[in-house]
Amino acid sequence: QVQLVESGGGLVQAGGSLRLSCAASGRSISSYTMGWFRQAPGKEREFVATIIWTSRSTSYADSVKGRFTISRDNAKNTVYLQMNSLKPEDTAVYYCAMRGSSDFNYWGQGTQVTVSS
């Protein structure tokens, strides 16, 4: 059974940085596309970034492009999200996900990121 556990969230001032980690167990992430999503209070969950299994292609939401970087360490079975120049509107619960055959089927429990102005 796949388990994804996020960590690294917290409270940071605007302009600051955080690095989120997503540790996977039960399956190697090396052959899977991994993604980060977020959900702010009162809003729907939204896409943040993805990285395909070869690590040669990444994609980002326009709102985070140039500020966030997704990466993966297949040896550690871990995916990261480096978040720089954080803004109050980045405040949300951030979720890690693994893409199955047709969609993101496996999700972590989320980690809270709060950016104060």
Structure description:
The chain is mainly beta and 117 residues long. It contains no helices and 11 strands. Strands 2, 4, 5, 6, 9, 10 and 11 form a 7-stranded mixed β-sheet that branches. A 4-stranded antiparallel β-sheet has the order 1-3-8-7, with no helix packed on it.
pLDDT < 50 stretches: none
How much strand? Answer: over 45%
Largest sheet: 7 strands, mixed
Q: What's the oligomerization state?
A: single chain
Structural class: mainly beta
Alpha-carbon Rg, integer: 13 Å
Give the rounded overall mean pLDDT: 95
| Alpha carbon gap, first and last residue | 40 Å
Per DSSP E runs of 2 or more residues, the count of β-strands stands at 11
The residue fraction in helices comes out at under 10%
Count helical runs. 0
The helix/strand order is EEEEEEEEEEE
User: What gross morphology would you assign?
Assistant: globular
Topology summary:
Elements: E1 3-7, E2 10-13, E3 18-25, E4 34-39, E5 46-51, E6 58-60, E7 68-73, E8 78-83, E9 92-99, E10 104-107, E11 111-116
Parallel strand pairs: 2-11
Antiparallel strand pairs: 1-3, 3-8, 4-5, 4-9, 5-6, 7-8, 9-10, 9-11
Concise synopsis of the structure shown:
The chain is mainly beta. It has strands at 3-7, 10-13, 18-25, 34-39, 46-51, 58-60, 68-73, 78-83, 92-99, 104-107, 111-116.
Notable features of this structure?
mainly beta; 7-stranded mixed β-sheet; 11 strands
